[in-house]
Amino acid sequence: MRLLHTSDWHLGRSFHRVGLLDAQAAFLDHLVATVREHDVDAVLVAGDVYDRAIPPLAAVELFDSTLHRLAEAGVPTVMISGNHDSARRLGVGARLIERAGVHLRTDPGGIGTPVLLPDPPHGDVAVYGLPYLEPALVRERLGAARSRHQAVLAAAMDRVRADLAARPAGTRSVVLAHAFVTGGETSDSERDITVGGVASVPAAVFDGVDYVALGHLHGAQALTHRVRYSGSPLAYSFSEWRHRKTMWLVDLAPGGEVTAERVDCPVPRRLARLRGRLEDLLADPALDRHEDAWVEAVLTDPVRPAEPMARLTRRFPHTLALTFEPERSDDPDGHLSYARRLHGRTDQQIAEDFVAHVRGAGPDAHERAALRGALDDVRAGLAAREGEVGR
């Protein structure tokens, strides 16, 4: 049986204020084309279909049209809710939609009831959907010993293994789960799911099944031969600039052996992270290849340059993020407390020091006069209010 494993679509998400709906639509076109081209038997979507609990209407329409296309292709789809999704909203109409071959698994109560995919003459493949399990909300329902991710996932997998043990010998098994599994490589765009200081669970919690299709982490990776993250189809932070965005095309042999290959996703625009002084970034011919990329720039000028974003975007029109990390010698007084460093200094001096700290150079004569005037106005206002109170 051939499975296409994907996750973390995050429909409706933007990238540094740039809308991604067109790019997400292009990815879903690619997914449907891949299903047809590679004779896929079932599609697995391991959570975070939407980027937030109440997604924008355009994202809902895109999701709806994709489900229709998969149903028309006659390819079963098994989908779970992730930590970004509203499980209740995503699961609306699940039993009705199931008639079209789209199986939404959003209710923890259905963990032990698989989707059975027939694969004659080799027998059924049992696909179990484990939606994102918030420990505090599902602990009692699952009979978990503690309100921790490992405890609730272990309890969920106990239900899976109990059901699987009652099925005919040779029944192959697949689990979809949305979780942070130990050993996975994170990025900046995943929402923290830490509970009680522990977010990750060991891969061994999934022992006993043939393939585990994971969602949540945005980089495609294989934790073991049978436990894999598909990653997100698009980059959602600059920390993903090195990612190769793919889906897993998984072949599950009659004996449960797994082979998998990566299918590349369309790239709307490359990412680039640039670092250095502004003039160097503007003049370096080696950076020509980044002029059409989405750019994150870190400027290291000792003194903050004038109009840095405007100057950067003249060369790199798609610059989306700009930060400053000025090159400075160590502060000889850095070991002193903030209060000791301020002791004996006037308000004017403190304000000028703050400008120097933020910008890398102190204020000029005009700026010092502006600061002095602002401080005088504040003092006058305070004196006036005190006078009103004293009357």
TrEMBL record:
Pfam families: Metallophos, SbcD_C. Keywords: DNA recombination, DNA replication, Endonuclease, Exonuclease, Hydrolase, Nuclease. Residues 1-219 form the Calcineurin-like phosphoesterase domain. The keyword Nuclease applies. The keyword Nuclease applies. Coiled coil: none annotated. Residues 268-357 form the Nuclease SbcCD subunit D C-terminal domain. InterPro entries: Calcineurin-like_PHP, DNA_Repair-Maintenance_Comp, Metallo-depent_PP-like, Mre11_N, SbcD, SbcD_C. GO terms for molecular function: 3'-5' exonuclease activity; endonuclease activity. GO terms for biological process: DNA recombination; DNA replication. Heterodimer of SbcC and SbcD. NCBIfam families: sbcd. Belongs to the SbcD family. PANTHER family: COMPONENT OF ATP-DEPENDENT DSDNA EXONUCLEASE, NUCLEASE SBCCD SUBUNIT D. SbcCD cleaves DNA hairpin structures. These structures can inhibit DNA replication and are intermediates in certain DNA recombination reactions. The complex acts as a 3'->5' double strand exonuclease that can open hairpins. It also has a 5' single-strand endonuclease activity. This is Nuclease SbcCD subunit D. It comes from Streptomyces fradiae ATCC 10745 = DSM 40063.
